[in-house]
Amino acid sequence: VLQKKFGFGKTEIISFEELVSIMKTYLEKTDIFIAHSVNSENHYLARMGISLPYEVDAIIDTQLLYKEFDLDNIRPIALIDLLKELKIKSKDLHNAGNDAAYTWLAFKEMIK
User: Fold this and answer.
1) pTM to 2 decimals?
2) If 0-12 CB within 10 Å is exposed, 13-18 middle and 19+ buried, where does residue 45 land?
3) How far apart are CA 40 and CA 29, in angstroms?
């Protein structure tokens, strides 16, 4: 159901093989990998046969970055809670595209 609720453009359904190819191409062309909970992303990438650091120069984890702002919080913050803290309205989380877009928005807000 959520796969068709991408809020930042047109939803495209692709095969797993296409996804692996796209991710490898993306990682070959990027310098910085930004994710919310890099450990979780590593899990999903490992299922695709990809490991970080692939060809990237830097890895930024918005979950860890937020901890730098909230040193009293020792627990990891969920993306939805991070967005609330940053006053970023969100919709249809757990759609991979939406999660990526909101992670980018959270990153931009934290580095202001």
Assistant:
1) 0.86
2) buried
3) 22
Q: CB of 41 within 8 A of CB of 49?
A: no
- 3-class DSSP string for the chain: CHHHCCCCCCCCCCCHHHHHHHHHHHHHHCCEEEECCHHHHHHHHHHCCCCCCCCCCEEEEHHHHHHHHCCCCCCCCCHHHHHHHCCCCCCCCCCHHHHHHHHHHHHHHHCC
**CA 89 to CA 54: how far, in whole Å?**
32
Place of tokens 């450990």: 39
Q: What is the band of 11 on the pLDDT scale with cuts at 50, 70, 90?
A: confident
CA–CA separation, 16 and 44 (whole Å): 12
